[in-house]
Design a protein that fits this description.
The chain has 268 residues and is of the alpha+beta class. Helices cover 37% and strands 23% of the residues. α1 packs antiparallel against α4 and α2 runs antiparallel to α3. The protein starts with 17 loop residues before the first helix and ends with a helix.
């Protein structure tokens, strides 16, 4: 399962986002900003901080307050600070200015890309879980799967048969040169979407190559590729001609191997 944690920006004269800090450190290296530049940046941060007035909510004495709050409810109304969603964008704008002043914009763009990728994977969490479930089913698959009739020794024929039945492009999956043996090829459902799975084994290792309709993936775009490790399973895929094609390995497969197999399939 993909877990994305929320980052809370506090009103001190420092940044508390670990990813942003790492980007700034990597960007700076041995470079140190001039004192006047640092003073100007800190002045901007102070202006941003002072421009924020925390909103509050009042709770009466009869309203429930979680015990974990460590406060009693009798007495005058309790005033609780409420997070202002507009603060984050202002602090990010200042952070971007800091990065550009100190050494350029690359670090910020890289950090932003990582955050966007994490958000995308979070939106596709259920799909990633469904893909892993299919991989765990092994060669036998689900009882409702329908085996392809072409010979397992003929990857091109299997692809053509699946393509005809699914009415979209299905890549030819031939991993013999990488030492993998095809154990099963069948039509299946992945998150209620008609798909095809090719199950492979190599010694005690196993992997499944799935071809699904691209619209099952939130954020799908022609030519897009991705790679992630979810629940210990490396997953690497790409989108082409209406199909989302991906390698889903067991937990012993290295992420770089999954990515290499994806590239091999895409180039076939």
């Amino acid at each position: 399962m993909v877990i994305v944690s929320e980052t809370i920006m506090r009103p001190e004269n420092s940044f508390h986002d670990p990813a942003l800090k790492a980007a700034i450190r990597g960007l700076q290296g041995e470079h140190r900003a001039k004192p006047e530049l640092r003073e100007a940046i800190m002045s901007k941060l102070e202006e941003a901080r002072e421009g924020e007035t925390p909103r509050t909510l009042e709770t009466g004495p009869d309203e429930d307050i979680p015990a974990s709050a460590g406060m009693f409810t009798d007495g005058p109304p309790l005033r609780l600070p409420v997070h202002n969603p507009y603060r984050i964008s202002r602090w990010l704008a200042v952070a971007a200015a800091l990065l550009i002043c100190v050494g350029g914009g690359w670090g910020f763009h890289h950090w932003q890309a990582v955050r966007e990728a994490n958000a995308e994977y979070a939106r596709n969490d259920e799909l990633l879980d469904a893909m892993i479930d299919v991989q765990k089913e092994g060669a036998a698959g689900d009882k409702d799967d329908v085996a392809l009739s072409a010979a397992l020794s003929d990857p091109a024929a299997l692809s053509a048969e699946a393509q005809q039945k699914l009415s979209r492009l299905v890549p030819v999956v031939d991993l013999k040169k990488s030492g993998w043996t095809l154990d099963a090829a069948a039509l299946c459902d992945v998150k209620n979407s008609k798909s095809v799975r090719f199950h492979y084994s190599r010694g005690n290792q196993s992997l499944t190559v799935l071809s699904m309709p691209s619209n099952v993936y939130s954020g799908a775009a022609e030519g897009k590729q991705y790679e992630i490790v979810a629940d210990g399973h490396p997953i690497a895929g790409y989108i082409r001609s209406g199909s989302l094609n991906c390698v889903v390995g067991d937990t012993t497969l290295l992420p770089k191997e999954a990515a290499a197999l994806r590239d091999q399939i895409r180039g076939s």
